[in-house]
Amino acid sequence: MGRAISRRDFLNGVGVVAAGTLVPACVTPSAPVFDDSPRWSTTIPEQRRKARHIVQCFAQIRDFLLTGRKPALKSLSRDPVLALFDRVFSERKRRLLLKKIGFREETREALMQREPALIQDFEKPYRHFEHARSSRGPRKVPDGINWNAVFCTRDLLRELPARYARAFRRIPAEEFLDIACSSYATRADRALTPHRRRMASAFQRCYLRLIEAAARHTGTGVDALLADLAERSALINRAERVTGDSLTHAAASLVRNRQTLSAEALGKLLKEFVRRQDLVPPQDRRGERTPSASSPPGAKAGRSKPSCGEEPFLDDMLQLVKEYRHSL
């Protein structure tokens, strides 16, 4: 999760440069908010509004250069360039969502061109689960305020392809929520309400329709496509994806065991740990060799596994990362 941009940075002009990073992060939830004393950082929705405001300011500059008069900023609230910003922003979000599901680039392009309505239909239940927040409400944390997410959509996108490969039909809503619920979900958060049951059904119905459409437009069998999605999504949405908390605990574990490792072994361990955070599928790397089918997810050609001396420590660190994957 990228660190939010502070309001002071926007006022000082740094936000104009940083706004270029907003679109790739646009699917990040609206929490947490960091206490960058003496100011609070902005959330992703706030950053989008700030970026849109910057575009509106450029429209004002454009009119001033063309006419010699500076129009009131409010009078440009319906300027066509803002509609263009909204359209490009929404399109980019959907492209990133398809990438997160695990579709290859050519498949993403085919779906964007031929199935925009289907992608939009899927986005609605997906955003429902992505944005659901704990009934406990906002909580103070050491460096700010956070509102825990009830569900982890990455877990869903990682696990569903393998489930559908066994049987290409919707799984029960109870099983769906069991996959989706984060470690922060309370008993009340986990309640299978009629609305949540409908959302689980809509999510799966649209997801399966996307798979069928992708197979049809690319001339690929559904089984082969699901196998490819399972492999790619396991890497893109891997459970051992670092967070700030997981790194803190992994570093503490490493410090405790530091004396049992030589300098060479420590170097190998850290390199392998960093390599395991590579979330880009090998097929998406232009000009690089593709690992063999027997390679573990995320493995690259020419890279050796750590020797048995470092493996227990690496396993411990990755287990900590997995346990804290829902944290900050």
Describe this structure in words.
By secondary structure, this protein is mainly alpha-helical. It folds into 3 domains: 1-78, no CATH class; 98-237, no CATH class; 244-323, no CATH class. Helices cover 56% and strands 4% of the residues. It is built from 13 helices and 4 strands. The chain has a 4-stranded antiparallel β-sheet, with no helix packed on it. A hairpin with a 2-residue loop joins β1 and β2. α4 packs across α5 and α11 (244-256) packs antiparallel against α13 (311-323). The longest helix has 25 residues, at 194-218. The radius of gyration is 22 Å and the shape is globular. The chain starts with 6 loop residues before the first helix and ends in a 5-residue tail after the last helix. Mean pLDDT is 79; it is low at 1-28 and 288-304.
What is the fold's blueprint, element by element?
Blueprint: H1 7-11, H2 14-18, E1 33-36, E2 39-40, H3 44-67, H4 80-101, H5 105-114, H6 116-131, E3 139-141, E4 144-146, H7 153-166, H8 173-180, H9 194-218, H10 222-236, H11 244-256, H12 263-275, H13 311-323
Antiparallel strand pairs: 1-2, 1-4, 3-4
Helix pairs in contact: 3-4, 4-5, 5-9, 6-9, 7-10, 11-13, 12-13
